[in-house]
Known about the structure:
The chain is mainly α and 129 residues long. Helices cover 80% and strands 0% of the residues.
Amino acid sequence: MSPLSKNFLRASLVYFLIAAIIGAVMISMKSYPAQLLFTHVHLNLLGWMSMMIFGVGYHILPRFTGRPLAYPKIGTLQFYLANIGLVGMVCFRPIHPLVEIFAGIEVIAIGLFVVNIWVSTIPPKPEQE
């Protein structure tokens, strides 16, 4: 497994554990602030689920066409942007202009994944004789 896939998988597991702890804390509270719910949801969806999909996707999807990942460096950039975007969103949600910037970074990271996998899974053109 590539370091890129391992990094995404490990990050996803860290976010999953943190989200589970926050979820357990929320259950023990009578009521909880909206920030805590936002953090819990985003760590689960963008942290645990999306990072796991990115890691597994980078490992498996290019292999379906028998081709290597088209842009490994873009994958690495996407890893950093996805993590910066997620952490920024959950830390700065109350500061509206900042959360929008980090949400934008997250969207860019997702777009990089889509382009990288899309190009990586285009079957090669058959050679003409």
